[in-house]
Design a protein that fits this description.
The structure is a homodimer of 99-residue chains. Chain A is of the alpha+beta class. Chain A has a single domain, classed as Orthogonal Bundle (Arc Repressor Mutant, subunit A), CATH 1.10.10. Helix content of chain A is 60%, strand content 15%. Chain A has a three-stranded antiparallel sheet with strand order 1-3-2. The longest helix of chain A has 14 residues. Chain A is elongated. The structure holds a DNA duplex (30 and 30 nucleotides).
DNA sequence: CAATTTGTTCGTATTTTTGCGAACAACGAA
DNA sequence: TTCGTTGTTCGCAAAAATACGAACAAATTG
């Protein structure tokens, strides 16, 4: 029975921060923050990376809980996961003493 | 002459986020956010990692510009780098639409 | 049905991150 | 000077992240 050193909040903040720790993913989240939804193709056009690489970045954002995908065949519409985005907001707000 | 896809702001935000992408480093920044300064020994006592590992995490926070060390022989006093902490605050504030 | 569009998964390679202990360096104290 | 304290650096190992193209899957279009 080992004492846990880090709180759930610290671990979740680290997960969110890590997900934002790459320019491609910052780019995506900035876009989604502005327009709430987008298609993978929109991203692919503007980013200088292979589509398989983009797919991986989207997967990471998804598994960190920051975005979610919705099938609109044959495309996929990506949106912010509002619930977790709000959590991230609060975590960073507290850490950075915003307001 | 290749077109640069990412803005400096995006890259800097990614660097800050990446630096916060580990529970140990979140722990350190939370502590420094509360009390503004601390000694490496304070951290070492409470964290379940080798001192060499802690040293590396501090190095990363330093090279991301989030903290700075001041020698108070034989110890080192670590403080938040206020200028960059403020920058990080603003970056996250904008991204997360805080306020 | 065949062809096209859209995006994921697989296999691979490279680089970076994380972590440890041992050795080392710098300093104050005895 | 010798000892202890403090912290970094080195050498190593294991794991994770980054990136690509090829192959694949699923759906729409012709």
């Amino acid at each position: 029975m080992k004492k846990e050193v880090f709180s759930e909040n610290q671990k979740q903040l680290a997960r969110f921060a890590k997900a934002l720790g790459h320019p491609v993913r910052v780019y995506i989240m900035e876009l989604l923050s502005r327009q709430s939804c987008c298609y993978s193709g929109d991203l692919s056009e503007n980013l200088p990376i292979a589509k398989s690489t983009l797919s991986q970045h989207l997967k990471e954002l998804k598994s960190a809980g920051l975005i979610q995908g919705e099938i609109e065949a044959p495309k996929i519409k990506y949106c912010i996961n509002r619930e977790n985005w709000e959590k991230a907001r609060n975590h960073f707000k507290i850490l950075l003493k915003i307001e």
